[in-house]
Amino acid sequence: MPQDVHAQPAPIAATQPGAHLPNNHPPVARPKIGVLLANLGTPDNYDYWSMRRYLSEFLSDRRVIDYSPWVWQPLLQLVILSKRPQKSGAAYKSIWNHAAGESPLMTITKAQTAKVAAAIGELHGADVEVDFCMRYGNPSTKSKVQSLIDKGCRKILFFPLYPQYAGATVATANDAFFRALEAPKWQPAARTVAPYFDRPSYIDALAQSVERAYAEMAVKPDVLVASYHGVPVRYLTEGDPYHCQCQKTSRLLKERLGWADTDIVTTFQSKFGPEEWLKPYTVEEVARLAAAGQKRIAVIAPAFSADCIETLEEINEEIRESFEHAGGESFTYIPCLNDDSAHIAALVEVIEDNLTGWL
Predict the structure, then answer these.
(1) Residues 40 and 188 in one domain
(2) Residues 134, 192: one domain?
(3) Do 208 and 267 belong to one domain?
């Protein structure tokens, strides 16, 4: 009987990974996609040596401090790190999650990762593996990239948890991710997530957190201070878009809330070193507001995806103190979005968009 040239070939039966490999071939895991969430980092503890290791790694990053190492490293290692670990350690101790033996940032990042993993699991089952890493400290980016590869991830989406782009945050996180890809013999395909500072779901999550906080107050604050982590002004002039993206986030938040321009002010915190940084400085602006008669303020930190030393200690202690010493009467800190359901939904939306074509 003549063969039917139009007949379709029989389907090939599905097999387990490695089913046709030689007996002595290394094991091959079932192919998956990895999603790696990344945050800034945390010391392992608040004692002197834990703090010194963490601060040395952080402040040696040329994306953070771009002075010549010949000038900067002697100053850092011999002067700054002789005293700063004690001061920073005391600040961490004041906010430490003693029950879990870790910093709040670690606790919150774990919770975020668990909720994102659960949501992604409902959508894609075991095809997508979700984990987290830290740019500084543990778990390191390199160790988590290798862990995902070991689990069979042939494609990895790297997601720095910073809404606004800055060289000192997003870029250095991406640098660590790319360096981690240098070692594997079988390098996975890779994508990085773009900033989401103007994404409607993120802006809406911010607005909802403000609305909830204001609904619980007997008297509405005179102004909302949107405090962002600062960077040197020089970075802006050299092309870093961070300042512009922060300003846009504040504007979109104001528009979503339906507020007037005078209801929200954008400031910058955490100045370090002798250079001029983005202004107004939060610690000075809250004092000015109090002196000008705006005695009731609320503060939100839209650049932070999770509460950390800069929010729980700097804003809620140092900046609060500056406001009250200048005559302020009511200071309300509105927590970061953390593992709030609207925030998790926004993060999952970003992930889904960036996985397009991979699933």
Answers:
(1) yes
(2) yes
(3) yes
Q: How many whole angstroms separate alpha carbon 179 and alpha carbon 133?
A: 14
For residue 52, what are the CA distances in angstroms to 15, 46, 48, 73, 76?
51, 9, 6, 14, 11
Does 9 fall in a domain? no
- Asked if the model's pLDDT at residue 97 lies above 50, the reply is yes
CATH number at residue 322: 3.40.50.1400
Q: Tell me the pLDDT of the chain averaged across its residues.
A: 93
What is the domain extent for residue 155? 32-196+341-354
Indicate whether 249 and 273 sit together in one domain. yes
CA 252 to chain centre: 20
5 within some domain: no
**Looking at the 3D structure of the chain, how many domains does it have?**
2
Helix ranges, the chain (H): 48-59, 69-75, 81-95, 104-124, 141-150, 172-180, 200-215, 233-237, 242-257, 282-291, 320-325, 341-354
Q: What CA dihedral angle connects 230, 232, 235 and 237, to 10 degrees?
A: 110
For residue 30, name the pLDDT band (cuts at 50, 70, 90): confident
Q: Are residues 182 and 237 in the same domain?
A: no
Tell me if 22 is assigned to some domain. Answer: no
Rounded to whole angstroms, the Cα distance separating 255 from 236 reads 25
* Three-class SS state of 287: helix
Which residues lie closer than 8 Å to 277 by C-beta, 6 or more apart? 230, 231, 232, 233, 268, 271
Give yes or no: residues 73 and 157 share one domain: yes
Prediction pTM value:
0.91
318 and 345 assigned to the same domain: no
Buried b (16+ CB within 10 A) or exposed e, 85-111: beebbebbeebbeeeeebbbbbbbbee
Which residue type sits at 29? Answer: A
Residue 6, pLDDT score:
52
Residues 204 and 318 in one domain: yes
CA dist., res. 46 & res. 104, Å (int): 12
| Tens-digit pLDDT profile for residues 287-344 | 999 999 999 999 999 999 999 999 999 999 999 999 999 999 999 999 999 999 999 9
